[in-house]
Specification:
It contains two helices and two strands; from the N terminus they run ββαα. With about 100 residues, it is mainly α. The model has no long low-confidence stretch (mean pLDDT about 80).
Amino acid sequence: MTRRAATVPLQPLGKHWRSGYARGMTEKPTDSKTPPPPKKPETNPIAGGIFIPFALLIGVILGMIFGQISVGMVGGLLFGLLVALLVWVYDRRSK
C-alpha cells in the first residue's frame, strides 16, 4: 500500500491511484488567476525595543541608590517604553 501525501491530490493512473509525489509533483498546482504575493519593503526597521530593558535596568539601579526600587523600576520601564515608541514613530515616518 502506498502512502498518500496530504498536500498533493490523488489522481488515477491506470487502475491504481497514486499520489502526486509518485508522479514527481512537489507542490499543489496554483491557479494562474491569483495575483502574486505583495513584496516586502526593502528598508530595515530600527530596533527601538532595546531601550526598554536598558532603561528598566538603569531605573532599578537609580531606585536602589535612592531607596525606592519599585519607583525606579516603574519609571525606567515607562521611560524605556516612551523612547521605544518615539523610535517606532520616527521609523514609520521615515518610510
